[in-house]
Amino acid sequence: xxxxxxxxxxxxxxxxxxxxxxxxxxxxxxxxxxxxxxxxxxxxxxxxxxxxxxxxxxxxxxxxxxxxxxxxxxxxxxxxxxxxxxxxxxxxxxxxxxxxxxxxxxxxxxxxxxxxxxxxxxxxxxxxxxxxxxxxxxxxxxxxxxxxxxx
Amino acid sequence: xxxxxxxxxxxxxxxxxxxxxxxxxxxxxxxxxxxxxxxxxxxxxxxxxxxxxxxxxxxxxxxxxxxxxxxxxxxxxxxxxxxxxxxxxxxxxxxxxxxxxxxxxxxxxxxxxxxxxxxxxxxxxxxxxxxxxxxxxxxxxxxxxxxxxxxxxxxxxxxxxxxxxxxxxxxxxxxxxxxxxxxxxxxxxxxxxxxxxxxxxxxxxxxxxxxxxxxxxxxxxxxxxxxxxxxxxxxxxxxxxxxxxxxxxxxxxxxxxxxxxxxxxxxxxxxxxxxxxxxxxxxxxx
Lengths: 151, 286
Known about the structure:
The complex is a heterodimer.
Chain A lengths: L1 H6 L8 E4 L2 E4 L2 H4 L9 E2 L2 E6 L2 E4 L1 H10 L3 E4 L1 H8 L4 E2 L3 E5 L7 E5 L5 E7 L8 E8 L2 H7 L5
Parallel strand pairs in A: 6-9
Antiparallel strand pairs in A: 1-2, 2-4, 4-5, 6-8, 7-11, 9-10, 10-11
Chain B lengths: L2 H11 L12 E4 L6 H10 L3 E4 L6 E6 L8 H4 L3 E3 L6 H6 L5 E3 L6 H6 L5 E4 L3 H13 L5 E4 L10 E7 L12 H4 L2 H21 E11 L8 H10 L2 E4 L6 E2 L3 E2 L2 E2 L8 E3 L1 H4 L4 E8 L2
Parallel strand pairs in B: 5-6, 5-8, 6-7, 8-9
Antiparallel strand pairs in B: 1-3, 1-4, 2-3, 9-15, 10-15, 11-14, 12-13, 14-15
Helix pairs in contact in B: 8-9
């Protein structure tokens, strides 16, 4: 499932290790510092499987944004709106690269090419200004601070 | 004797006071992601004005901000961590040159700061605090940390660099009603546990290795007494700390501490305008 998600953005392989249902970026140098006990967190968290569904982590999106062209770059207004969980509209968009096929996953980047999250390209409808449907953004960190049990 | 008088008197004995101050909000640049100069410029564009903290490397006072810093994109992007100036000092005083053990890691401020110097093995026993550590490591994009949700006393691997930021009773600047909630009995209980942690940490420290012990407690039983127990029973000595703060105390009530205790640093809120703190740097004999 991790591989399937990655392949929607790039053909490049991302080496990973699995701890339970959680995935982390493989890092042989860091592995030399392991204790004899089983670790709970290792380097960059890539995501996890819950109820048979893969949920990517922002660390994976960060990584993908360095190797994938599947991006939507937004202006400052779009950055704030997206981080508040809103869908992106035409007025938010600076550029779109990669495929323009509706239903494609896109990384959402700010003007500094920093990853804010990801979403799915919306189908063009007459009169609709919506370009990308929001899926995940970095505002998740605030939600988790408020409610530690949230994923 | 009421609590207020009890703490006022004991602080006067060691050159401090119970005076409350207004704290300025502080942040630390996450240099894994951005330089301090660039962060200052980016936040200025949002109307957040920073002023360099003179005694730490990457810290700023927040002079003005029109909104809660937690809601700004730069926070969510992990470009900075909200951290009191005093709490930024222990990592700078450790200055690790190799893999470091962070014994009580949550919520992750010092862990992520350590990661700017060297790889980190982070330990946190409490499950909900471990989640906070996880959240911060992820937000700050720390890629060189392995974290364990386990009891520090179960660690058996040796390290050349250890940060022992021990759980403590805190200080009067950190929580309202702290003076009423605390007592000598509670402080001595803490001290006993801290000495256990110190002895275990020193058993893990390799020869010629360095350990920094820090607490946000101003009580000599949680600070100098813990260091004294290390000096008395382990092959370690204190090293100088080049940072702000008063020297550690050598005499307190019935206690007589080693003269080298003056190499430790205690930070009084009323003197340094930041939260109370204590730090010591110990090196194990080769």
